[in-house]
Amino acid sequence: MRDTDFFRRWMAATAAAVEREADQLTELDSPIGDADHGSNLLRGFRAVLPALEAEDPAAPGEVLQLAGRTLISTVGGASGPLYGTLLRRTGKALGEAAEVSDAELREALDAGVTAVAQLGGAAPGDKTMLDALVPGVAALGTSYGAAAEAAENGALATVPLLARKGRASYLGERSIGHQDPGATSSALLIRALADVAEPGEGAR
C-alpha cells in the first residue's frame, strides 16, 4: 500500500528530475516548439514542493490534486493544463483514501491519461506526451521498472513520427526526426515514480 508520504516523495523526485533535465527538455523543444518546455516545467515543479509543504495534504489523492492545481496556475503554454489535468484527475480517482494499492494507483493513472487525451484531442502516435504515458501506465501491471522503461521507449519512438497535435504539428513533415519534449518529460514522471517505488515490484 502507498501512503501520502509516498506521493510526496514521487512529486519531489519528479521535481528533481525536471531540475536536472530542464535544459535538455528545452533543447528538444527548440526545433519543434517554443523552446520553453523545460523552463515552464521547472517553474511549475519548483512551486509544487512549497505548496505541498504549506498545505500539508492528508491523503495521496490530495497530494496529486494540489500538485495539479499548482502546475495549472504556474506553468505556461499547454504543459500546465495537460500535466495539471493528469495529476488532478489521477488524484480525484484516488479519492480520500489514506493509502492506495498499486492496482488502484494504476487505475487512477489510467483515468488521468484518458483525461489528458480528451483535453488535447490526441492519441498515441500523434507525437505527444501520450506516446510515453500510455505504454508507461499499461506496463505498471508488470512492474514499476517496466513502466519507466516503456515510457522512455515511447518517448524515443516519437523521433520518426509526424506531429499531429500541438505546436509541433504546425511544422508538418519538419517535425519528423525530433524527439517530442512532452513525451520525454512524461517519461521523467514515470521514471520518478519507479525510483520511489520498490524496484521490480509489480502492481498489487
Supply Rg: 16 Å
Q: Percent helix among the residues?
A: 55-70%
Annotation field: number of helices: 8
Highest-level CATH class: Mainly Alpha
Provide a compact summary of the structure.
By secondary structure, the protein is mostly helical.
Key words describing this protein structure:
204 residues; two-stranded antiparallel sheet; Serine Threonine Protein Phosphatase 5, Tetratricopeptide repeat; mainly alpha; globular; 8 helices
Describe this protein's structure.
It is a single chain. By secondary structure, the chain is mainly α. The chain has one domain: DhaL domain (Serine Threonine Protein Phosphatase 5, Tetratricopeptide repeat). Helices cover 65% and strands 2% of the residues. The protein has eight helices and two strands, in the order βααααβαααα. It has a two-stranded antiparallel sheet with strand order 1-2. Helix 1 (4-29) packs antiparallel against helix 2 (37-55), helix 1 runs parallel beside helix 3 and helix 6 packs antiparallel against helix 7. The model is unreliable at 200-204 (pLDDT under 50).
Topology (SSEs and partners):
Blueprint lengths: L1 E2 H26 L7 H19 L4 H15 L4 H16 L4 E2 L1 H19 L9 H9 L5 H13 L24 H16 L8
Helix pairs in contact: 1-2, 1-3, 1-8, 2-3, 3-4, 4-5, 5-6, 6-7, 6-8, 7-8
